[in-house]
């Protein structure tokens, strides 16, 4: 596996302040991402997550640093990287088929029948068979989001970028779409990078969960490696003995640690080699289970 399929290398972002000077949203972020993995970023509102994702998408440029994808520096948007936005951003005058086919035709110079056949595969994949001829105004929020997912996947991107793609949906639809995205990513070996506020969503979907501190001058504090088995399902994920250990670790970060990174704590971080932790069993369970006692303290550094 190529450990640096995506490499975020020392990126920073500054915005000009009213009245002069500038605000540093974040600086000196480093993160390697392996091919075929699912990464989630969690952090409080305003810390700079969307800005990072936009830089990965090539929709924004960093004030310093670079992002390398498959050995090439990102220099603007590319069909190698597809984005699923929170607001699906569909073309309202095109049908479901029209929206997906438009993306397919922008990637490959195929005839109309080839484009439609390819688009149909992805419309089927997200469960919209039969709705090909509908316009976005005739679709529910969940259906629109499915079109956005089909459109993003249909161009077979090297990276799937998602910015809180399910946050506007009801719980039932959100769950179904999480299942679909997870199944598709696993079946196709898709490399995915997703922003979410939802800790359970991150634990269900991600292989690695990156914790970002509050801004300004936000930093990536650590990478949580998901200890749950790869064959987890949404129905059983919360029954796994390690589930609450991971969940508590992330919530503890969001509630307390994300706010407490002062200049000294930031200075002591090894930003190029972020700590990777694999939260273990909650202390009580670990204490009862002698062979697992090494997990006491609820986390184990694995690199
Ligand atoms: N064009 C801009 N000009 C000035 N400041 C900006 C601009 N875009 C973003 N910011 C600021 O940068 C910071 C990070 O914004 P960003 O949208 O990346 O946050 P976020 O982590 O995605 O937040 P949320 O979770 O609420 O979506 C915010 O403080 C925001 O006000
Ligand atoms: Mg955002």
* Small molecules bound: adenosine-5'-triphosphate, magnesium ion
Enumerate how many helices there are, as a single number: 9
Strand content: 15-25%
Helix content: 25-40%
SSE series? EEEHEEEHHHEHEHEEHHEHE
Distance between the termini: 18 Å
Average the pLDDT over all residues and give the rounded result.
Answer: 88
CA radius of gyration: 20 Å
Contiguous uncertain segments of 5+ residues: 285-303
Biggest pleated sheet: 8 strands, mixed
General form: globular
- Strand line-up of the largest beta sheet: 6-7-8-3-9-10-11-12
Number of DSSP strands? 12
Can you give keywords for this protein?
303 residues, alpha/beta, eight-stranded mixed beta sheet, four-stranded antiparallel beta sheet, 32% helix, binds adenosine-5'-triphosphate, binds magnesium ion
Describe what this molecule looks like in 3D.
This protein is α/β, with parallel strands linked by helices and 303 residues long. The chain is 32% helix and 22% strand. It contains nine helices and twelve strands. It has an eight-stranded mixed sheet with strand order 6-7-8-3-9-10-11-12, sandwiched between helices. Helix 2 runs parallel beside helix 4 (141-154). It starts with 5 loop residues before the first strand and ends with a strand.
């Amino acid at each position: 596996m190529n450990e640096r399929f995506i490499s975020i290398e020392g990126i920073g972002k500054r915005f000009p302040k009213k009245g002069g000077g500038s605000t540093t949203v974040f600086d000196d972020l480093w993160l390697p991402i392996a091919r075929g993995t699912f990464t989630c970023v969690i952090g409080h509102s305003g810390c700079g997550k969307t800005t990072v994702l936009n830089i990965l998408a090539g929709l924004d440029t960093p004030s310093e640093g670079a992002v390398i994808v498959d050995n090439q520096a990102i220099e603007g948007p590319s069909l190698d990287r597809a984005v699923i936005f929170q607001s699906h951003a569909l073309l309202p005058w095109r049908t479901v088929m029209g929206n997906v086919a438009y993306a397919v035709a922008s990637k490959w110079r195929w005839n109309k029948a080839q484009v439609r056949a390819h688009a149909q595969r992805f419309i089927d994949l997200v469960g919209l068979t039969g709705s090909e001829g509908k316009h976005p105004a005739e679709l529910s929020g969940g259906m629109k989001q499915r079109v956005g997912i089909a459109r993003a996947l249909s161009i077979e991107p090297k990276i799937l970028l998602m910015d809180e793609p399910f946050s506007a949906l009801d719980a039932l639809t959100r769950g179904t779409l999480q299942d679909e995205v997870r199944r598709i990513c696993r079946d196709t070996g898709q490399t995915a990078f997703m922003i979410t506020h939802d800790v359970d969503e991150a634990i269900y979907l991600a292989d690695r969960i990156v914790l970002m501190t509050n801004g300004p001058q936000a930093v990536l504090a650590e990478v949580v490696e998901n200890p749950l088995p790869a064959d987890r399902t949404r129905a059983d994920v919360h029954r796994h003995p390690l589930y609450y250990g991971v969940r508590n670790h992330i919530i503890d970060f969001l509630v307390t640690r994300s706010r407490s990174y002062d200049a000294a704590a930031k200075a002591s971080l090894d930003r190029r080699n972020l700590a990777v932790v694999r939260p273990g069993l909650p202390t009580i369970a670990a204490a009862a289970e002698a062979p697992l006692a090494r997990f006491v303290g609820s986390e184990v550094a694995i690199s």
